[in-house]
Amino acid sequence: MGELFGAYLRARRMELDLRLGGYSIRKLAQRLRVHHSFLSRIERGEPARLCERKLVALAYELGENPDLILAMNGTVAEDVRRAILKRPALFSRLVRELRDAPDEDVRADSQLRRERTRLAQRIADKAVRLRRALDELRVFRLAVDNGPAAVCMIGPDDSVTYVNRAFLTLWGFTSETDILGRHRSVFWVDPEEAQHYYRKMKETGRSSMEARALRPDGTTFLARVTATACLDLDGRVVGGIASIVDVTRERALERGLASSNQWLRQFVEDMHDVLLLLDDQGRVVYVSPSLETVWDLEPQAVQGRPLAAFALPAHKPMLRDQIARTLEGANTIGDHRLLHGDGTYPWVRLSLAPRRDEQGRVTGAQGVVAALNGRVPPAHPSDQD
User: If 0-12 CB within 10 Å is exposed, 13-18 middle and 19+ buried, where does residue 211 land?
Assistant: First the structure.
Protein backbone atom coordinates (compact mmCIF):
# COMPACT_ATOMS: atom_id res chain seq x y z
CA MET A 1 0.00 0.00 0.00
CA GLY A 2 3.05 2.26 0.07
CA GLU A 3 5.45 3.72 2.54
CA LEU A 4 3.49 7.00 2.77
CA PHE A 5 0.29 5.32 3.90
CA GLY A 6 2.20 2.95 6.21
CA ALA A 7 3.95 5.86 7.94
CA TYR A 8 0.65 7.74 8.24
CA LEU A 9 -1.12 4.70 9.69
CA ARG A 10 1.60 4.08 12.25
CA ALA A 11 1.72 7.73 13.35
CA ARG A 12 -2.07 7.99 13.68
CA ARG A 13 -2.36 4.66 15.54
CA MET A 14 0.39 5.55 18.03
CA GLU A 15 -1.20 8.96 18.61
CA LEU A 16 -4.57 7.33 19.45
CA ASP A 17 -2.94 4.66 21.61
CA LEU A 18 -1.11 7.30 23.61
CA ARG A 19 -4.23 9.43 24.01
CA LEU A 20 -6.98 6.81 24.40
CA GLY A 21 -5.29 3.42 24.82
CA GLY A 22 -6.44 0.22 23.13
CA TYR A 23 -4.71 0.96 19.81
CA SER A 24 -1.78 -1.42 19.96
CA ILE A 25 -1.14 -3.14 16.66
CA ARG A 26 -2.53 -6.41 18.03
CA LYS A 27 -5.74 -4.88 19.39
CA LEU A 28 -6.37 -2.86 16.22
CA ALA A 29 -5.77 -5.97 14.11
CA GLN A 30 -8.23 -7.96 16.25
CA ARG A 31 -10.96 -5.36 15.74
CA LEU A 32 -10.30 -5.35 12.00
CA ARG A 33 -10.30 -9.19 11.99
CA VAL A 34 -6.86 -9.38 10.34
CA HIS A 35 -3.62 -10.82 11.62
CA HIS A 36 -1.36 -8.38 13.45
CA SER A 37 1.62 -9.36 11.30
CA PHE A 38 -0.35 -8.32 8.19
CA LEU A 39 -1.05 -4.87 9.70
CA SER A 40 2.60 -4.61 10.70
CA ARG A 41 3.66 -5.20 7.10
CA ILE A 42 1.40 -2.36 5.95
CA GLU A 43 2.93 0.01 8.50
CA ARG A 44 6.41 -0.89 7.25
CA GLY A 45 5.36 -0.10 3.67
CA GLU A 46 5.73 -3.69 2.48
CA PRO A 47 3.42 -5.05 -0.27
CA ALA A 48 0.06 -5.80 1.35
CA ARG A 49 -3.48 -4.75 0.55
CA LEU A 50 -6.74 -4.39 2.44
CA CYS A 51 -10.13 -4.67 0.75
CA GLU A 52 -12.44 -1.64 0.64
CA ARG A 53 -14.52 -2.92 3.56
CA LYS A 54 -11.42 -3.28 5.75
CA LEU A 55 -10.13 0.14 4.68
CA VAL A 56 -13.44 1.79 5.61
CA ALA A 57 -13.40 -0.01 8.97
CA LEU A 58 -9.80 1.15 9.49
CA ALA A 59 -10.81 4.73 8.72
CA TYR A 60 -13.50 4.71 11.39
CA GLU A 61 -11.16 3.07 13.89
CA LEU A 62 -8.70 5.94 13.27
CA GLY A 63 -11.44 8.60 13.20
CA GLU A 64 -10.63 9.54 9.61
CA ASN A 65 -12.69 10.17 6.49
CA PRO A 66 -13.10 6.85 4.64
CA ASP A 67 -12.72 8.57 1.24
CA LEU A 68 -9.36 9.95 2.33
CA ILE A 69 -8.11 6.53 3.41
CA LEU A 70 -9.38 4.98 0.18
CA ALA A 71 -7.75 7.69 -1.92
CA MET A 72 -4.42 7.17 -0.13
CA ASN A 73 -4.62 3.56 -1.27
CA GLY A 74 -5.49 4.36 -4.88
CA THR A 75 -9.13 3.35 -4.81
CA VAL A 76 -12.60 4.94 -4.78
CA ALA A 77 -15.51 4.20 -2.46
CA GLU A 78 -18.11 1.88 -3.95
CA ASP A 79 -20.95 4.42 -3.67
CA VAL A 80 -18.81 7.06 -5.42
CA ARG A 81 -17.86 4.56 -8.13
CA ARG A 82 -21.54 3.74 -8.68
CA ALA A 83 -22.41 7.44 -8.88
CA ILE A 84 -19.72 7.95 -11.55
CA LEU A 85 -20.92 4.93 -13.52
CA LYS A 86 -24.48 6.22 -13.34
CA ARG A 87 -23.52 9.59 -14.90
CA PRO A 88 -19.97 9.16 -16.21
CA ALA A 89 -19.98 12.11 -18.59
CA LEU A 90 -21.14 14.56 -15.91
CA PHE A 91 -18.64 13.43 -13.28
CA SER A 92 -15.77 13.26 -15.76
CA ARG A 93 -16.49 16.83 -16.84
CA LEU A 94 -16.80 17.99 -13.23
CA VAL A 95 -13.52 16.42 -12.21
CA ARG A 96 -11.64 17.85 -15.17
CA GLU A 97 -13.14 21.29 -14.64
CA LEU A 98 -12.35 21.24 -10.97
CA ARG A 99 -8.81 19.97 -11.38
CA ASP A 100 -7.30 23.38 -12.09
CA ALA A 101 -10.18 25.66 -11.10
CA PRO A 102 -9.62 28.14 -8.25
CA ASP A 103 -11.61 27.58 -5.07
CA GLU A 104 -13.55 30.80 -5.70
CA ASP A 105 -14.83 29.52 -9.05
CA VAL A 106 -15.88 26.23 -7.54
CA ARG A 107 -17.82 27.95 -4.80
CA ALA A 108 -19.50 30.21 -7.40
CA ASP A 109 -20.87 27.31 -9.44
CA SER A 110 -24.33 26.80 -7.89
CA GLN A 111 -25.07 23.55 -9.75
CA LEU A 112 -21.75 22.06 -8.71
CA ARG A 113 -22.32 23.26 -5.17
CA ARG A 114 -25.69 21.51 -5.05
CA GLU A 115 -24.21 18.29 -6.42
CA ARG A 116 -21.40 18.47 -3.92
CA THR A 117 -23.81 19.19 -1.07
CA ARG A 118 -26.01 16.22 -1.95
CA LEU A 119 -23.00 13.95 -2.29
CA ALA A 120 -21.60 15.16 1.03
CA GLN A 121 -24.96 14.57 2.69
CA ARG A 122 -25.16 11.04 1.35
CA ILE A 123 -21.65 10.34 2.55
CA ALA A 124 -22.46 11.84 5.96
CA ASP A 125 -25.65 9.81 6.28
CA LYS A 126 -23.84 6.64 5.36
CA ALA A 127 -21.09 7.46 7.83
CA VAL A 128 -23.66 7.93 10.61
CA ARG A 129 -25.31 4.60 9.82
CA LEU A 130 -21.98 2.85 9.62
CA ARG A 131 -20.76 4.34 12.91
CA ARG A 132 -24.02 3.33 14.60
CA ALA A 133 -23.64 -0.19 13.25
CA LEU A 134 -20.03 -0.30 14.44
CA ASP A 135 -21.07 0.89 17.91
CA GLU A 136 -23.73 -1.81 18.09
CA LEU A 137 -21.21 -4.36 16.87
CA ARG A 138 -18.73 -3.32 19.57
CA VAL A 139 -21.41 -3.70 22.27
CA PHE A 140 -22.36 -7.12 20.92
CA ARG A 141 -18.70 -8.16 20.69
CA LEU A 142 -18.12 -7.07 24.29
CA ALA A 143 -21.14 -9.05 25.47
CA VAL A 144 -19.96 -12.18 23.64
CA ASP A 145 -16.35 -11.80 24.77
CA ASN A 146 -17.37 -11.66 28.43
CA GLY A 147 -20.51 -13.85 28.31
CA PRO A 148 -20.97 -16.94 30.52
CA ALA A 149 -21.45 -19.36 27.62
CA ALA A 150 -18.50 -20.58 25.56
CA VAL A 151 -18.70 -19.25 21.99
CA CYS A 152 -16.60 -20.10 18.95
CA MET A 153 -16.75 -19.33 15.23
CA ILE A 154 -15.77 -21.71 12.44
CA GLY A 155 -14.53 -20.42 9.08
CA PRO A 156 -15.07 -21.78 5.55
CA ASP A 157 -12.12 -24.19 5.91
CA ASP A 158 -13.59 -25.67 9.15
CA SER A 159 -10.92 -24.00 11.28
CA VAL A 160 -11.56 -21.92 14.40
CA THR A 161 -11.58 -18.16 13.73
CA TYR A 162 -12.84 -16.83 17.07
CA VAL A 163 -13.30 -17.96 20.69
CA ASN A 164 -14.32 -16.00 23.80
CA ARG A 165 -12.92 -16.17 27.32
CA ALA A 166 -15.52 -18.68 28.49
CA PHE A 167 -14.39 -21.07 25.74
CA LEU A 168 -10.77 -20.80 26.89
CA THR A 169 -11.81 -21.53 30.48
CA LEU A 170 -14.10 -24.44 29.57
CA TRP A 171 -11.49 -26.22 27.46
CA GLY A 172 -8.53 -25.27 29.64
CA PHE A 173 -6.60 -23.17 27.11
CA THR A 174 -4.52 -20.19 28.21
CA SER A 175 -4.52 -18.13 25.03
CA GLU A 176 -6.43 -17.68 21.77
CA THR A 177 -3.25 -18.54 19.87
CA ASP A 178 -3.56 -22.11 21.18
CA ILE A 179 -6.89 -22.47 19.36
CA LEU A 180 -7.22 -20.11 16.38
CA GLY A 181 -6.56 -21.85 13.10
CA ARG A 182 -7.04 -25.38 14.46
CA HIS A 183 -9.58 -27.74 12.90
CA ARG A 184 -12.82 -28.00 14.83
CA SER A 185 -12.58 -31.82 15.05
CA VAL A 186 -9.77 -31.69 17.64
CA PHE A 187 -12.23 -30.61 20.34
CA TRP A 188 -14.38 -33.76 20.31
CA VAL A 189 -13.96 -37.34 21.46
CA ASP A 190 -15.97 -38.52 18.43
CA PRO A 191 -15.21 -36.17 15.49
CA GLU A 192 -17.59 -38.10 13.21
CA GLU A 193 -20.53 -37.36 15.49
CA ALA A 194 -19.64 -33.66 15.51
CA GLN A 195 -19.26 -33.74 11.71
CA HIS A 196 -22.80 -35.12 11.35
CA TYR A 197 -24.29 -32.16 13.24
CA TYR A 198 -22.04 -29.69 11.41
CA ARG A 199 -23.39 -30.94 8.07
CA LYS A 200 -26.91 -30.60 9.44
CA MET A 201 -26.18 -26.96 10.39
CA LYS A 202 -24.97 -26.25 6.84
CA GLU A 203 -28.07 -27.84 5.35
CA THR A 204 -30.73 -26.36 7.65
CA GLY A 205 -29.00 -23.29 9.08
CA ARG A 206 -29.13 -24.56 12.67
CA SER A 207 -28.38 -27.69 14.70
CA SER A 208 -27.90 -28.79 18.30
CA MET A 209 -26.29 -31.77 19.95
CA GLU A 210 -24.86 -33.18 23.16
CA ALA A 211 -21.44 -34.71 22.69
CA ARG A 212 -18.36 -35.62 24.71
CA ALA A 213 -15.76 -32.84 24.44
CA LEU A 214 -12.00 -33.45 24.70
CA ARG A 215 -9.63 -31.13 26.58
CA PRO A 216 -5.88 -30.85 25.82
CA ASP A 217 -5.05 -32.66 29.07
CA GLY A 218 -7.11 -35.69 28.03
CA THR A 219 -10.10 -35.06 30.32
CA THR A 220 -13.60 -34.93 28.87
CA PHE A 221 -16.96 -33.33 29.64
CA LEU A 222 -20.46 -33.52 28.22
CA ALA A 223 -21.19 -30.42 26.13
CA ARG A 224 -24.49 -29.10 24.81
CA VAL A 225 -23.85 -27.30 21.52
CA THR A 226 -26.19 -24.97 19.64
CA ALA A 227 -24.80 -23.96 16.24
CA THR A 228 -26.03 -21.42 13.68
CA ALA A 229 -24.74 -21.02 10.14
CA CYS A 230 -22.94 -17.81 9.10
CA LEU A 231 -23.92 -16.55 5.64
CA ASP A 232 -22.24 -14.17 3.21
CA LEU A 233 -24.09 -11.41 1.34
CA ASP A 234 -25.19 -13.93 -1.29
CA GLY A 235 -26.70 -16.26 1.30
CA ARG A 236 -23.99 -18.90 1.06
CA VAL A 237 -22.79 -20.71 4.19
CA VAL A 238 -19.26 -19.56 5.02
CA GLY A 239 -18.97 -21.02 8.49
CA GLY A 240 -20.84 -21.20 11.75
CA ILE A 241 -21.07 -19.82 15.26
CA ALA A 242 -21.69 -22.13 18.21
CA SER A 243 -22.61 -21.71 21.86
CA ILE A 244 -21.33 -24.48 24.16
CA VAL A 245 -22.41 -25.26 27.74
CA ASP A 246 -21.00 -27.95 30.06
CA VAL A 247 -23.96 -30.14 31.10
CA THR A 248 -21.96 -32.94 32.78
CA ARG A 249 -23.19 -32.10 36.27
CA GLU A 250 -26.73 -31.41 35.03
CA ARG A 251 -27.00 -34.85 33.41
CA ALA A 252 -25.50 -36.55 36.47
CA LEU A 253 -28.10 -34.89 38.69
CA GLU A 254 -30.86 -35.99 36.32
CA ARG A 255 -29.64 -39.59 36.46
CA GLY A 256 -29.45 -39.42 40.26
CA LEU A 257 -32.95 -37.98 40.45
CA ALA A 258 -34.32 -40.67 38.17
CA SER A 259 -32.67 -43.33 40.34
CA SER A 260 -34.08 -41.72 43.50
CA ASN A 261 -37.56 -41.56 41.99
CA GLN A 262 -37.37 -45.24 41.07
CA TRP A 263 -36.25 -46.12 44.60
CA LEU A 264 -39.04 -44.02 46.09
CA ARG A 265 -41.68 -45.64 43.88
CA GLN A 266 -40.41 -49.09 44.85
CA PHE A 267 -40.43 -48.09 48.53
CA VAL A 268 -44.02 -46.88 48.34
CA GLU A 269 -45.13 -50.01 46.53
CA ASP A 270 -43.45 -52.37 49.03
CA MET A 271 -44.33 -50.62 52.30
CA HIS A 272 -47.09 -52.06 54.55
CA ASP A 273 -48.54 -48.75 55.68
CA VAL A 274 -50.99 -47.07 53.31
CA LEU A 275 -50.19 -43.62 51.90
CA LEU A 276 -53.11 -41.49 50.80
CA LEU A 277 -53.94 -38.04 49.46
CA LEU A 278 -57.26 -36.27 50.09
CA ASP A 279 -58.76 -33.31 48.27
CA ASP A 280 -60.32 -30.31 50.01
CA GLN A 281 -63.58 -32.27 50.42
CA GLY A 282 -61.98 -35.23 52.17
CA ARG A 283 -62.18 -37.46 49.09
CA VAL A 284 -59.38 -39.92 48.28
CA VAL A 285 -57.40 -38.82 45.22
CA TYR A 286 -54.52 -41.27 45.65
CA VAL A 287 -53.84 -44.39 47.68
CA SER A 288 -50.66 -46.50 47.60
CA PRO A 289 -50.63 -50.09 46.21
CA SER A 290 -50.22 -51.49 49.75
CA LEU A 291 -53.99 -50.99 50.19
CA GLU A 292 -54.55 -54.07 48.04
CA THR A 293 -51.81 -56.26 49.54
CA VAL A 294 -52.37 -55.34 53.20
CA TRP A 295 -56.04 -54.39 53.35
CA ASP A 296 -57.38 -56.54 50.54
CA LEU A 297 -59.07 -53.55 48.91
CA GLU A 298 -58.52 -52.37 45.34
CA PRO A 299 -57.29 -48.75 45.06
CA GLN A 300 -59.83 -48.09 42.28
CA ALA A 301 -62.65 -48.87 44.70
CA VAL A 302 -61.45 -46.19 47.12
CA GLN A 303 -60.31 -43.34 44.87
CA GLY A 304 -62.85 -40.57 44.42
CA ARG A 305 -64.86 -41.51 47.53
CA PRO A 306 -64.84 -39.80 50.95
CA LEU A 307 -62.44 -41.47 53.37
CA ALA A 308 -65.11 -41.30 56.09
CA ALA A 309 -67.28 -43.67 54.01
CA PHE A 310 -64.91 -46.53 54.99
CA ALA A 311 -65.02 -45.90 58.74
CA LEU A 312 -67.11 -47.84 61.25
CA PRO A 313 -70.41 -45.93 61.29
CA ALA A 314 -69.92 -44.84 64.89
CA HIS A 315 -66.41 -43.54 64.05
CA LYS A 316 -67.39 -41.46 61.01
CA PRO A 317 -67.98 -38.21 63.01
CA MET A 318 -64.54 -38.48 64.65
CA LEU A 319 -62.84 -39.14 61.27
CA ARG A 320 -64.66 -36.23 59.62
CA ASP A 321 -63.60 -33.99 62.53
CA GLN A 322 -59.93 -35.00 62.11
CA ILE A 323 -60.06 -34.32 58.36
CA ALA A 324 -61.73 -30.92 58.94
CA ARG A 325 -59.04 -29.89 61.44
CA THR A 326 -56.33 -30.94 58.98
CA LEU A 327 -57.94 -28.88 56.19
CA GLU A 328 -57.86 -25.91 58.56
CA GLY A 329 -54.06 -26.23 58.67
CA ALA A 330 -53.31 -28.56 61.62
CA ASN A 331 -51.26 -31.77 61.72
CA THR A 332 -53.50 -34.41 63.28
CA ILE A 333 -53.38 -38.01 64.55
CA GLY A 334 -56.42 -40.17 65.25
CA ASP A 335 -57.28 -43.81 65.96
CA HIS A 336 -60.20 -45.19 64.00
CA ARG A 337 -61.71 -48.43 62.79
CA LEU A 338 -61.61 -48.68 59.00
CA LEU A 339 -63.07 -51.25 56.66
CA HIS A 340 -60.92 -54.27 55.70
CA GLY A 341 -61.47 -56.33 52.58
CA ASP A 342 -62.80 -59.22 54.68
CA GLY A 343 -65.62 -57.06 56.06
CA THR A 344 -64.06 -56.37 59.49
CA TYR A 345 -63.12 -52.97 60.92
CA PRO A 346 -59.63 -53.30 62.50
CA TRP A 347 -58.07 -50.44 64.45
CA VAL A 348 -55.73 -48.09 62.52
CA ARG A 349 -53.81 -44.96 63.32
CA LEU A 350 -54.38 -42.14 60.81
CA SER A 351 -51.73 -39.37 60.63
CA LEU A 352 -52.67 -36.39 58.45
CA ALA A 353 -50.94 -33.17 57.40
CA PRO A 354 -52.28 -30.35 55.18
CA ARG A 355 -51.25 -30.11 51.53
CA ARG A 356 -50.48 -26.55 50.36
CA ASP A 357 -50.03 -24.84 46.99
CA GLU A 358 -47.23 -22.41 46.09
CA GLN A 359 -49.10 -19.56 47.82
CA GLY A 360 -49.38 -21.58 51.04
CA ARG A 361 -53.12 -22.24 50.75
CA VAL A 362 -54.42 -25.61 51.97
CA THR A 363 -55.65 -27.66 48.99
CA GLY A 364 -56.12 -31.04 50.68
CA ALA A 365 -54.49 -33.48 53.08
CA GLN A 366 -51.82 -36.18 52.92
CA GLY A 367 -51.20 -38.92 55.40
CA VAL A 368 -50.43 -42.47 56.45
CA VAL A 369 -52.75 -45.24 57.62
CA ALA A 370 -50.94 -47.70 59.90
CA ALA A 371 -52.51 -50.89 61.27
CA LEU A 372 -52.30 -51.17 65.06
CA ASN A 373 -51.84 -54.96 64.77
CA GLY A 374 -53.86 -56.05 67.76
CA ARG A 375 -53.21 -52.95 69.85
CA VAL A 376 -56.57 -51.54 70.86
CA PRO A 377 -56.89 -47.92 71.98
CA PRO A 378 -59.00 -47.09 75.05
CA ALA A 379 -62.57 -48.22 74.51
CA HIS A 380 -64.97 -45.78 72.93
CA PRO A 381 -68.65 -45.92 74.00
CA SER A 382 -69.76 -46.26 70.41
CA ASP A 383 -67.39 -49.11 69.48
CA GLN A 384 -69.09 -52.20 68.14
CA ASP A 385 -67.87 -55.30 66.37
Answer: buried
Per-residue pLDDT tens, the chain, 385 aa: give them. 567 777 888 888 888 888 888 888 888 888 888 888 888 888 887 777 788 888 888 888 888 887 777 777 777 666 766 766 677 666 667 666 666 666 655 555 566 667 777 888 888 888 888 888 888 878 777 777 887 888 888 888 888 888 888 888 888 888 888 888 888 888 888 888 888 888 888 888 888 888 888 888 889 888 888 888 888 878 888 888 888 888 887 777 766 666 555 554 554 455 567 888 999 999 999 888 877 776 788 888 888 999 999 899 998 999 999 999 999 999 999 999 988 888 888 998 999 999 998 888 999 999 888 888 755 555 454 444 4
Backbone angles phi, psi at 317, to 5 degrees: -60, -40
How far apart, in whole angstroms, are the C-alpha atoms of residue 249 and residue 255? 10
Number of H helices, E strands in the chain: 15, 10
Do β-strands 347-356 and 284-287 pair in parallel, antiparallel, or remain unpaired? unpaired
Backbone angles phi, psi at 215, to 5 degrees: -90, 165
| CB crowding 302-339: b at 16 or more within 10 Å, else e | beeebbbebbbeebbebbeebbebbbeeeebebbbbbb
Encoded amino acid at 343, one letter: G
